[in-house]
Write a structure and sequence with these properties.
The chain is α/β, with parallel strands linked by helices and 287 residues long. The protein is built from 12 helices and 8 strands.
Amino acid sequence: MSGKTGIILEGGAMRGIFTAGVMDFYLEKNINIENVVAVSAGAYSGMNYVSGQKNRIVDSVVEPMRKEKLLGVSLLFKNGEFFNMEALFDRIPRYDCPFDFEAFKKSGKRFITSTTNCLTGEAVYFDEFPDFDYFLKVIRTGNSLPLLSKMAWFDGVPMMDGGMVDAIPVSKALEEGWDKIIVVLTRDSAYRKSSKGDIYNSKLVKVLYHKYKGLLKAIDARPGIYNNSIETLEALEKEGRAFIYRPPSTITLTNNEHDADMLLKYHQVGFETAEARYDELMEFLNK
């Protein structure tokens, strides 16, 4: 297997459960990929893959939903955030379902995740995490969505979800010199992004975030960058340089799904999708 092989993990909030299923199959089969670049919710799956904690997404997100509210409009009105950020990015990984940060650091894998600099509109990539507090802050910042989360501040710079700039960072993978790129998408093959109907590309966002010109610039450019990334990946797939997983169009999951049984089903879909393509993946990695 080439040392320049890496995985790109797209975000998509709760649709990322599909990604977790794919990564859990990798852990079961001991498929070790040296590089991981994970955006937004994809970071939650990516970090568990790097730390080697199979099914942690189920134990840390899905099952807790049966007992407490981790997302919803009521949380947005109460705390100013649609997702229970304190639980997801502090209490649960520290205490309820501990994330193995030591195993993460010793894995030998390179983990890259991103945020959006709201002043410049550029992606900020992180691949070094000196301690657990810093790591959790990066992951939380990279999952802070406009309208749905409070503005995050990192070293005095306003930052939000990395997917606002580049949801599928194929350009970053090519910049890193990866010869083979594995990609886990959370939309089916027909999906293309449009500014129409996008809650982020709205008058409300332009009013609320008028001080953050970079964020608004990134949101305006977002559909074009996303669709160009898909076209680039499909071209690389034809060349034999990209291996792409997509959820089947027969099963749809919204990014705010909160039914634990539905999420478990979708996790299994991700696992079975990877399982069905195992031989194909081995051929891709070993050619």
